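OP here, attaching both records as promised.
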Amino acid sequence: MIVGVYGDSDTGKTTLLVQLVSKFTNEGYKVATVKQTKKSISMDTKNKDTWRHHDAGASLVVFSSGCETDFLFQKTMSTPEIIRRILGFGCYDIVFIEGTNDQNIPKIQVGTGKKRKNTIFTYNDDFKELMTIIKKYLKVKPSVPCLCISVNGKNIPLTEFPEQIISKTVLGMVGSLKGVHNINEVTIQLKR
């Protein structure tokens, strides 16, 4: 499920998003977040090594340190492209997008201001009610095995039945392989 959070500056969007992430994570959901802004800012710093890599022509630069790994794309992306790439990193129950304006994404408005298309709730310090609304839209339970399939770069949505059949088949086959124990995650990549 993808949920947007929007509102004017200093209305508490980030504070609310942090509360939502904390609550859903504590309940066992796997959560990803995106922060969008209209401002033209960059995480990269001119003349630093990663900037020099981009400047030389790399379209993707990865910065890896002892505490994190950052993927820096030297281009803007649409919200669906961002979501597709996030799902390439793994299965997430919920993706929260702070600042989204995509009209197809259900959104929570924080504060007053112009209401955006597909706003499902206006938040006014009623966190319990907000959780109820989001869970109504949420179609998965926490800690349920998650299967993501992408064909030719396009994510294929699965209902519960095919997800269970494919998951159980793959787990059965992989589990029978020599040296495989305690399967928590399986990655299969097939190219033709």
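Record two, same layout:
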Amino acid sequence: MSDSLSRRSFVAGSITAAAAAASAQTLPTRRFGKTGLEVTILAMGCGNRLWMAYENQERGVEAVRLAIDSGIRYLDTAQAYGDGVSETWVGIAGKERRKELVYATKTPARKADDLLRRAEQSLKRLQTDYLDVLHIHSLRFADDLAEIEAKGGALEALYKLREQKVARFIGITSHTDPATLAEALKRHDFDCTQMALNAGLQGSSPDGAGYWKKTKDLFGEALPPKPHPGASFQDVALPVAVKKNLGIVAMKVTAQDGLLGKGDGRADSSRLIRYAMSLPVSVVTVGMPKLPYIGENTALARAFRPMSKTEMKNLSTRLSEANKVALDLHFREHQDA
């Protein structure tokens, strides 16, 4: 890591009077776990719903600025999103209002030296001296966790950046395997985490008899080929994060639009976002590939009222029965980039 990065001062003082005035327009906030940070309950997801949907820098920066002007203060990006394009657009859009904003980015690095190099690049693209949140991106299975934990692995550098106050808070994300994420959270000193949480991923998991859904004659649909779908992040990893008082970010809340639509196995975006916000999470990140979606989603966040447990159960039962097997397998293969 360069000397300039190791000596970089931590800029996290009180916000300016102008920023304080602007913050009056923010969305409702929640505590970001044990960090003490307050975050808006809605984040703008700056993955392919930003850099692919808006196609060029002018339009992408316009979208991020509209999100900020509409009250969003948590911007969820990653080094792999457009190979740095997303971070660049966020940095341009948020430059004048940096102290109001939470910049959360993610690194695909699995080795310490690579993580430090990539962190330097993120700082330059985001035009900032510090990162509010730096996640290890897209944890997969046990072998991936072992690589991160090994001597010279990414976790080693992540702790170093937090100690140097280059990253205020550190975490890890996953949409692949709930059990591996839960184990990572149990073993290590993270401040936060981000995981796939939606009503279609919730619901019953495969039983020991080798059948997905039982019928009256005790038989049902055979499991698909391995890897078998696992239990949900909501059941397995979320309770660990809650117990450790981590800042929790819900993602994939519409299953990348796979749950949107009409019919028994579908729902509208407002119900899916409301379901995620009703979980014990700090913030829900949502991609907004069209400008009108930004106004619709921020209005939903301002008017948010939690779903009842019964309403949540009914929605998750309906959606998971139609979608869970396919979604589990999809997110095992899906690559965030």
